[in-house]
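Allow me, if you will, to draw on your knowledge of protein folds for a short while. I have a record of one protein: its chain in single-letter code and its fold written as discrete structure tokens. Could you please explain, in whatever detail you think fit, how the structure tokens follow from the sequence? The record follows directly beneath this note:
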Amino acid sequence: MPSRSNTIDSPEKRSGRAQDIVVLKEVRKRFGETEVLKGIDMVFHRNETTCIVGGSGAGKTTLLRLIVALDKPTSGQIYVEGEDIVVIRERELNQIRQKFGVVYQYSALLDSITVLENVAFPLVEHTKLSSREIRQRVVEKLRILGLDESVLDKFPAELSGGMRKRVGLARALMLDPPIVVYDEPTSGLDPVTSRAVDDLIADTKRRFGVTSIVITHDITTCFRIADQAALLADGQVVARGTPEELAHGDNRISRDFIANSGVDVEAVKSLRPPP
């Protein structure tokens, strides 16, 4: 009979299949007497877009911080590309964090520096490239995302909401991470710009081959871009599946949540390729 150490012999086997790029197992997070996350089990597949939806106070922001290794759970395992990031040291965590590009709510650009300096920041911090090489890479990334060199010397306050999102995404992509996390990407944007941001997320996945994790309250975004979706409520995943399964499946909580959003999901045009 094989020993226990031989039957569980690799991080990949412990975390799941090779295409499972991020895996959460029985993740709990407590702040004092309050348990914010209550046993989260989730799997994010490589090169797919997963939307995590839920109301205010559901635990979405706490979950995001745990996934990108900015905080540690009270208990449970979080595997990123097969490695349990809960048990590793801070120095190794810094390497794990570079696997994620994060596009923060309202873009979180530094107002006192230019677009060039904002986008270049990860390269300045984590590489030894020359100023010329950094500028070339920034220009190329912005070009791919639909912005030209005329924006380099502008400050964030001089940009439209949609342009700020593109600049924030360019910064998130500078280290070529395999995973991009979006924190409420359409929050505060008008409907036209929100749909343009949906297009940008879908196009980024296609162009760069990234796994996308989208924290959002925007049901339209979810139905336009998500391969899979999860509904978070009171610190628990109460439903998961395709957006259509959440809207029309057997789970009453998810059906009611989507119905109460006021979005006519039947009229939403999906950006996902046909099966």
Notes: The chain has a mean pLDDT of 90. The radius of gyration is 19 Å.
